[in-house]
Amino acid sequence: MENYFSKFLNYLLDVLQATYSQLFILFGPLLILVVLLNLSAIFNARLSVRFWGRNLFLYGFGWLGCSVHELSHAFFALIFGHKISEITLFEPNSNGESLGHVSHSYNKSSIYQKTGNFFIGISPLLFGGIVLFLCVLLLFRFNVTALSNFRISPQVLTDLSLLKQIGLNIWNSLITFLSIVFVGSASVWWKSALLIYILYSTGSSMTLSKSDVGSAISGFLWVIIIFLVFNLITLWIGNFMIDFLGRIVGYISGFYFLLILSMIANLVFISVLFLLNLIKGLFVKG
Question: Quick one: CA torsion of 103, 223, 166, 17, rounded to 10 degrees?
Answer without folding.
Answer: 160
